[in-house]
Specification:
NADH dehydrogenase activity; 27 helices; Proton_antipo_N; mainly alpha; transmembrane; 71% helix; two-stranded antiparallel sheet; 663 residues; EC 1.6.5.-
Length: 663
């Protein structure tokens, strides 16, 4: 089987699994889990085969004319280079782990068949984005992911929070997709083709008439999909969905798509200095702001959500300094340890009976009861904090090293301001990342107090998935010496300066949060244990639907921790209440967009009811009045009718005589 044929099967198999699952889910429930898991496993295996066949060598291109559209045709094209095949392996492996995890996590959920089919469709769409060599075909996968995310985030549609989160995710990402679509058409008009290779050739040869405009239009869509400032507010709210969905969205699909598209089209961005500066500033604000917000969250999944936003900021920062190898390398390592963190968080929530870190900090024995999640998440958090020798250290240092080169003016065509911006923000974020990672670990696993109620033992499938993801989270960074063969020979090994600075910042963050934790225990000891709200993830192995009624209670006040002894509160001080609410961006958007839109809707309703309907009612009343007048003349008396006829004839005769006389 050729590489091209194998690559076609990679996105096709999950798609067929999704169709089969939707058609047979209710009629043959016994086939639901095999139809969810087997296509994902097959796609992951075939993705590995494609990566092996491609071998990091020359890119493999194949295309067939999809439809003639005049001057700019659309091709069903594949482009398989080192970036694409490795990203496809990540998507396949994470999707397989999510499907396996979900078989136990949502075992008694009555909507599991549709959920599994949507996850398969989600996976297929992301694989289409990864392998596509044509922007219009890529756009199909891009939009299908948005639709799938709407349904998956709103899986618990009975709750107001899930409905609001799914709608918010859909609207915010679509808000960015409009300029993204315009940017695709603008690129195609400049380059004369939708083929990515043709666009990159035009960009390299200076053939783009408006590179800055094209890049900024694309960047709006990327900011929405990859949750970058200022279109990032949908991602923390999306935690209202099931935990496996969060793992899939954050690790391998949706948010990774925006970074991947910029990496594929990076020559378009490097053709514009202004676009690179905008990208660098966006990355810097995203990194620092999300790290501060993560340090103030009480919901464990929202901590990880803001963490994802910050790590995506590292990736866009690497792209801002012209190093897509470092960006994709961090995309790969982040996908491994972030999937592990989210799936491990599901185990923690089930064992603790809550998703509140403050409540976990007041309960003891959690690490002993869930040893698999404890050890695997410890390694994943160390990778997130970029502590050597775990995977996150190598990829994050590759980003900081690229920023250092750009700041020194060693990167051709990259403004030094972009390099300094990314480097400074990256180092500060490294300190904050280690702080919130350490805070999560301490509050989840080092709590003091009575043990939480035992909610049952985790299924084997869930623990097995954690250990599968443990391997890349631990050792994928060691591939830094081998991946240059896949990334065009670009070195990814850490540099001494940034390694020392980055590791020093991370260690400082860990020391600071540990000191704050020790001080906080004295404060917390005086605070009584409050009522703990349940989350539908709290007993997922029994039945999530049985606890949906309490979901609103759990997510009704997730702005921040209420524990006065929270180490995050101690570290942030007065900034805590602002960081806990995401620096009030939702309030700003409500004032700028939501309220004016609702006011316009009320005005339209008033005009429709009081103006338009007035004419409609008048048009209906006039014939009624005329009919009433005519009805009065209908007496039923023949003499009256004959008299009226005679009188009318006389009037007509007189009128005719007068007219004739006047003529």
């Amino acid at each position: 089987m050729t590489t091209t044929t194998t690559a076609v099967l990679v996105p096709l198999l999950p798609f067929l699994g999704a169709v089969a699952g939707l058609l047979t889910g209710r009629r043959a429930p016994g086939f639901v889990r095999p139809l969810a898991v087997l296509p994902a496993v097959a796609a992951a295996v075939l993705a590995v085969v494609v990566a092996w066949q491609q071998g990091g060598g020359k890119a493999v291109d194949a295309a067939t004319r999809l439809t003639p559209t005049g001057s700019v045709p659309i091709d069903l094209a594949l482009h398989l280079d080192g970036f694409a095949v490795l990203a496809a392996v990540l998507v396949g492996v994470v999707a397989t782990c999510v499907q396996l995890y979900s078989t136990a996590y949502l075992r008694n959920d009555p909507r599991y068949p549709s959920y599994a089919a949507l996850v398969s469709l989600f996976t297929s769409a992301m694989l289409l984005v990864v392998y596509s060599g044509d922007l219009m075909v890529l756009l199909v996968g891009w939009e299908v992911m948005g639709i799938c995310s709407y349904f998956l985030v709103g899986h618990y549609w009975e709750t107001k929070e899930a409905r609001a989160a799914s709608l918010k995710a859909f609207l915010v990402t679509k808000f960015g997709d409009v300029p993204f679509l315009i940017g695709i058409f603008a690129l195609a008009a400049d380059a004369g083709t939708f083929r990515i290779n043709g666009i990159l050739t035009a960009a390299a040869n200076g053939g783009l008439a408006h590179p800055t405009l094209d890049a900024l239009l694309l960047l709006a869509g990327v900011a929405g999909k990859s949750a970058q400032f200022p279109l990032h507010t949908w991602l923390p709210d999306a935690m209202a969905g099931p935990t496996p969905v969060s793992a899939l969205i954050h690790a391998a699909t949706m948010v990774a798509a925006g970074v991947y598209v910029v990496a594929r089209l990076l020559p378009v961005f490097t053709a514009s200095t202004a676009a690179l500066v905008v990208l660098a500033v966006m990355a810097a604000v995203t990194m620092v702001g999300s790290a501060l917000a993560a340090l103030a969250q009480d919901d464990i999944k929202r901590v990880l959500a803001y963490s994802t936003i910050g790590q995506l900021g590292y990736m866009t920062g690497a792209l801002a300094v012209g190093d897509r190898s470092a960006a994709v390398f961090h995309l790969l390592t982040h996908g491994a340890f972030k999937a592990l963190l989210f799936l491990g968080a599901g185990v923690i929530i089930h064992a603790a009976g809550t998703n509140s870190l403050s409540a976990m900090a007041r309960t003891g024995g959690l690490a002993r009861r869930i040893p698999d999640a404890y050890w695997t998440m410890t390694v994943a958090l160390l990778a997130l904090a970029a502590i050597p020798p775990f995977s996150g250290f190598f990829s994050k240092e590759a980003v900081l090293g690229a920023a250092e080169h750009a700041a020194r003016g060693e990167a051709s065509g990259i403004p030094g301001a972009a390099g300094w911006t990314v480097l400074a923000a990256g180092l500060l974020t490294a300190l904050l990342t280690a702080a919130y990672a350490g805070r999560l670990w301490l509050m989840a696993f080092r709590g003091t107090g009575p043990e939480a109620a035992d909610h049952g033992r985790e299924p084997v499938a869930i623990n097995a998935v954690l250990w599968v993801l443990f391997v890349p989270a631990l050792a994928l960074g060691l591939a830094a010496w081998k991946l240059p063969d896949w990334f065009g020979g670009h070195a990814l090994t850490p540099t001494l300066t940034t390694s020392v600075l980055g590791t020093g910042c991370a260690l400082l963050g860990l020391v600071a949060v540990h000191a704050a934790w020790r001080r906080s225990r004295a404060v917390t000891a005086a605070v009584p244990m409050g009522a703990v709200a349940a989350d539908p993830d709290a007993a997922p192995y029994v039945s999530e639907t049985e606890t949906i009624a309490t979901h609103e209670q759990a997510y009704g006040s997730i702005a921040g921790a209420q524990d006065p002894g929270d180490p995050g509160r101690l570290l942030l001080g007065p900034l805590h209440r602002h960081a806990a609410t995401g620096f009030h961006l939702d309030v700003v958007y409500s004032a700028l967009f939501v309220r004016p839109t609702r006011a316009a809707a009320r005005l339209a309703q008033f005009l429709d009811r009081e103006v338009v309907e007035t004419y409609v009612r008048g048009a209906a009343s006039a014939p009624g009045l005329l009919g009433a007048a005519v009805r009065r003349a209908q007496t039923g008396n023949v003499q009256t009718y004959l008299g009226a006829l005679f009188a009318g004839s006389v009037v007509l005769a007189v009128a005719a005589v007068l007219v004739a006389t006047g003529a």
